[in-house]
Amino acid sequence: xxxxxxxxxxxxxxSVKQGTTLLEAARTINVRxxxxxxxxxxxxxxNCRVCVVEQSGSDRLLPACAIPAADxxxxxxxxxxxxxxxxxxxxxxxxxxxxxxxxxIRMGIVNCKACRMSILLVKTGTSI
Length: 128
What we know:
Blueprint: E1 4-9, E2 12-17, H1 22-28, E3 52-55, E4 61-63, E5 74-76, H2 80-96, H3 113-124
Helix pairs in contact: 2-3
GO molecular function: iron-sulfur cluster binding
Domain 2Fe-2S ferredoxin-type: 3-81
Protein name: Periplasmic [Fe] hydrogenase large subunit
């Protein structure tokens, strides 16, 4: 039998296979964490840090796409600290990479990084 770890994400208990990232664990319980650089077909890099989450008892924010779930973790995906950090990260990314994306994004799958960035701007209330 595979080793399982049990943790809480947004006060929801979840058990996942050892080695599962926090991002993947959150997805199993339909908790959405914003991402920009993460893609299932690429190696984990955690470069953009848009997926940061807060762990109870820790001062550091963790990149959910790169940190494996561990027994007893208590993760908060939508804390004020995580939301503020995401907003600052997105503002920094946008300041270096101006976007040329239409303001209206149609519903559906968004694969374009500029489009995903635009969606993150709207969700975090960041202006460019």
